[in-house]
Amino acid sequence: MEKGSAASKSPATTKKTPNATSPSVSPTSVIVAFTVQCDKCYKWRKLATEEQFEEFRCNLTDDPFVCNKLPGTTCEKPADISVDSSRVWVLDKPNIPKTPKGFKRIASLRSDYSRMDVKYMTPQGDKIRTTPEIVDYLQNHPECSHISPSDFCYIAPKIMRETLPKHVVKNPVSSTKKKIKMKSLVDIHITGNPSYPPKKIT
Length: 202
Prior knowledge:
The structure is a single chain. The chain is mainly beta and 202 residues long. It is built from two helices and nine strands, in the order βββαββββαββ. It has helices spanning 50-57, 131-139, and strands spanning 11-16, 30-37, 44-47, 88-91, 104-109, 116-121, 127-128, 158-159, 188-191. It has a three-stranded antiparallel β-sheet with strand order 1-2-3, with helices on one face. A three-stranded mixed β-sheet has the order 8-4-9, with no helix packed on it. Strand 5 and strand 6 form a beta hairpin. It is globular. The model is unreliable at 1-10, 14-28 and 172-187 (pLDDT under 50).
């Protein structure tokens, strides 16, 4: 996930979309990598886990990421990854609370590449897509009394459309909602920086 000029502080994640066997098949997006941009040198660093990504993202504005927060990493080292159209980048909102223990925040890319969707999976495996649903869930699960609805954020990451694959139609999807046939795997990065586009290394 990456953002505009302010994206230099953000963490990011990667998703892969399996090949569709026919135009009628909707690809499933799966995050496979997480990255964060240094607030000083603007280089992107890969993160080991989603938990590490959420740790940086939850307080990104007050505590910007810098390279030396990762063991053995400095601004002098080459970037781990660069923004280009070989993968799709999406930008997550900074300062999103860490996902409560037992829950999982899932960001998925629609098959027509029009937008991202966010939902949470409960410890029981149920998928919750709206704040009213999570309020109702918490009221009916007293074991979650320490969790607040404000611990959940449904704001979807923003797609950097300039990084979409060449075979994807970049114009708004028509009212026919025509399916797009996937021709290759697509990586998606999510970053938690407030501005767009990401800052570039100079």
